[in-house]
Every structure is written in C-alpha cells, then in structure tokens.
Amino acid sequence: MPTATQSAAIMLTAGIGIPILAALNAALGQRLGSPISAGFILFLVALLTTGIVFLFAGGSLKGAVSAPPHLFFAGCLVAFYVLTITWVAPSFGVGNAVFFVLLGQLVSAAAIDHFGLFGAQPSTLTFWRVSGIAVMGLGVFLTQIAGRS
Question: What is the Cα–Cα distance from 50 to 56, expressed in whole angstroms?
Fold first, then answer.
C-alpha cells in the first residue's frame, strides 16, 4: 500500500490527467465529428491498456461473478463522464466543464464519506468541510463570471 504522501502524489497526477483527457477526447470527437466515436476509441484504448496492466499484475476476475450487480454501475458512470465531457467541452470549454465536474465530485464525495456509502470509511461532514465545498462552489461561480468578461 502506498503511503499518504505517495497516495496524494498519485491522485494529484490523476487529477492533472482529467482535464488533459477531456481536452484530447473533445478534440478527437470534433475531428471525427462524433463524441460517441471518440468515447468508443477512448474506451478501446483504455481496455487494452488496462488489459496489459491486468496481465502483468497477475489480476484475477474470480470474485466478479459473486459481486453485487450494483457495483458494476461504476462503468456506466465512467462512460457517462467521458461521453458528456467529450460532447460538452468543445462548446462550453474544458475548464468550465471540469470545474463543474469538480464541484459535483466534491458534493458527492462529501455525501459518500459522511454516510459511509458503498463501504467508504465514514467521515463526518463538519462545518469546515461544508465551508470548503462552498468556497469551491464560489470558485466555480467566479470562473463563470470571469469567463463572460
């Protein structure tokens, strides 16, 4: 297991990749004339990449058959994210799209942590956590106002 510092660095890197993913796939969708085609190609490349990592890591799918069906809904959510950001980003802007995604992530993550949903370690929604989400919401609002100037 990675240390807290390593985990933070890994997740920061993943976070850096999200707007890059959005910009690249939005550009591919425009080039192809279809955000759905770009999403399909993205998932094909992702499947191949994950398959290679899976094979080298000695992965196993033996527990998948007994997993509750609702756990597979995560794949639908990833598809929804990729398809919507690929469709919306060219006209709304990558930054705008990602800012709203980030705001949604903060609210959803706070609820998941607060209620310990899906087996997450519970973390009480305190005044400071709510304040942080509100500040992020204000930041999204300010980016929208600045974008109109």
Answer: 10
